[in-house]
């Protein structure tokens, strides 16, 4: 091998890899946004506001991961919020109505999320109907069950330990609620990078037919991704109950846009096959920072939805441009 063909080494090579990393752009935007908003409003960087920001990111990142894993297989899950809401009222209801200990209630809620997600995946595989249609239908079903069980009334009897967990801090402004999210992020990163099932998920998203020809069981992989998505949505619902200290039936109603915004801002390819856990985490942070800034500057909160929509459009446009440039580079190299 000639010296020119050797991979770049040393500081220059490391810098090039850093600049090409999926998370670098969103991470840079996150730091720049915090610095800019902190300069305009010093209270933004106060310990209390940073704690509020961390609490929002802790829950919202799980919502984003729940959608991200479905985007990875080239599909979408419109029922993320409905699954999270149903799991949340399961968690709150079992403690309130039946006096179940919090760990058992949490386990039951996670099981509900897993089963709801698995049912989505099974129906998609068995019927061949698009994930959009199946999850749109299941959104209505799961939300209907939620309202039927609760009669639109919240559960107030949340265990004191859960309430304390929702407000406790680990270190400085970092809440305990962030710990499960950090562990999930590490686990997802390891799965996608190191485990066969993670490679199968990305392979199915990249090209399901080619993945099947290479020996990947596409159907079980799709069911796995949806089951994992449901469990992540359930965990988000559980943490939100701990944060709000109430089992509110409206939990999950406003998750849909957020669930897409953070992965897309993080560079996820909507066609599937390429996602980044770290970039999605930074995408979540960007959304939380913008939302908190609008509150600090007394800007109409309804503008949040407009800003999120604009961010999604901009991120998709940038991703398409990047994909076109990569395709052109590959064609040039092939010649």
UniProtKB/TrEMBL annotation:
Protein name: ABC transporter permease
Keyword Cell inner membrane part of the UniProt annotation: no
Family matches, as InterPro entries: ABC_transp_permease
Lineage: Bacteria, Pseudomonadati, Pseudomonadota, Alphaproteobacteria, Hyphomicrobiales
Signal sequence range: none
Single GO term (MF): transmembrane transporter activity
CDD domains reported in the protein's UniProt record: TM_PBP1_transp_AraH_like (cd06579)
Location(s), subcellular: Cell membrane
Annotated source species: Aureimonas endophytica
Membrane topology according to the record: Multi-pass membrane protein
GO cellular component: plasma membrane
UniProt main location, coarse: membrane
UniProtKB keywords: Cell membrane, Membrane, Transmembrane, Transmembrane helix
Pfam families, per database record: BPD_transp_2 (PF02653)
Transmembrane feature ranges: 23-45, 52-73, 79-98, 110-137, 174-193, 224-245, 257-290, 302-321
């Amino acid at each position: 091998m000639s010296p020119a063909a050797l991979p770049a080494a040393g500081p220059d090579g490391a810098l090039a890899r850093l600049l090409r990393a999926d998370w670098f752009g969103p991470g840079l935007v996150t730091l720049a946004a915090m610095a800019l908003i902190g300069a305009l409003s010093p209270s933004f960087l106060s310990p209390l506001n940073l704690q509020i920001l961390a609490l929002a990111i802790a829950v919202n990142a799980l919502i984003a991961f729940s959608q991200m894993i479905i985007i990875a297989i080239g599909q979408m899950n419109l029922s993320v919020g409905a699954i999270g809401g149903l799991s949340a009222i399961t968690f709150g209801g079992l403690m309130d109505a039946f006096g179940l200990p919090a760990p058992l209630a949490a386990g039951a809620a996670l099981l509900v999320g897993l089963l709801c997600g698995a049912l989505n995946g099974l129906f998609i595989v068995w019927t061949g109907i698009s994930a959009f249609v199946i999850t749109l239908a299941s959104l209505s079903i799961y939300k209907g069950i939620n309202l039927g069980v609760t009669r639109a009334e919240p559960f107030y009897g949340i265990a004191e330990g859960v309430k304390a967990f929702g407000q406790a801090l680990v270190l400085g402004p970092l809440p305990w609620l962030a710990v499960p999210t950090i562990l999930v992020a590490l686990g997802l990163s390891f799965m996608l990078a190191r485990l066969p099932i993670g490679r199968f998920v990305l392979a199915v998203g990249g090209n399901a037919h080619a993945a099947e020809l290479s020996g990947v069981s596409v159907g079980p992989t799709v069911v796995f991704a949806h089951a994992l998505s449901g469990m992540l949505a359930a965990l988000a619902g559980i943490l939100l109950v701990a944060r709000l200290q109430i089992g509110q039936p409206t939990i999950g109603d406003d998750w849909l846009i957020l669930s897409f915004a953070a992965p897309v801002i993080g560079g996820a390819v909507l066609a599937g096959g390429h996602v980044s856990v770290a970039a999605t985490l930074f995408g979540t942070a960007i959304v939380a920072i913008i939302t908190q800034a609008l509150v600090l500057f007394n800007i109409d909160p309804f503008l949040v939805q407009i800003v999120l929509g604009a961010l999604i459009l901009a991120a998709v446009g940038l991703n398409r441009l990047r994909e076109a440039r990569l395709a052109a580079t590959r064609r040039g190299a092939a010649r």
